[in-house]
Amino acid sequence: EMIDKGLVKVIDQKDVRAYLKVFGLEDHTRQRRRIISWPRVGNRCFQEYFCEANFGKMRTPDVRQQMEDACSPLAVYCGTWDMSAAFYQLGYRNGCERWNCFRHRTASGKVIFLAQQSACMGATQNSQLCDEVLRRACVLTTADVAVSHPQYQYEWSTYCDGNRVFSSSAEAVNVWGAAFRARCAQFNITL
After folding, report:
1. Cβ 42 vs Cβ 100: under 8 Å
2. d(CA 124, CA 173)
3. pTM over the 0.90 mark
4. For residue 103, is pLDDT > 80?
């Protein structure tokens, strides 16, 4: 089923560069199985090499800042949005999937190797990528709304695959939300 949906593809064992630890989590409310992957090698490489060189320390939630945001004078009205199945919206470029593989035994008993075609839950960098995608959409949305509705003031924040906007006016939150949804549609982001 995952192959049919394009979430994984069969890969030759010689092309595998790193393995994932994979387990399924039943989501009874949506009647589906959610795949959770733990790419230990990939996480370590990302943290040691890529992250420190390009981003500095990983961004972690600042609870104090979130509390201050909620107490802002603009925090009378709030809107929140969340990327739907966020990690599946981040596709890998050709070749990257070789680093996100796992073994699977078919019903006939044959062992095949599968490569994940999209970002996976459990990979350190994927939360950062979702956060960055939404952050850019928020910056562009704020610029769009500043031109079309300069009378409104906003504050927004993102974390992982969700964001929120605060304003002193419900209409302002609705205007910003409509512009944000349009910007996300332009980026092929499903909320």
Report:
1. yes
2. 31
3. no
4. yes
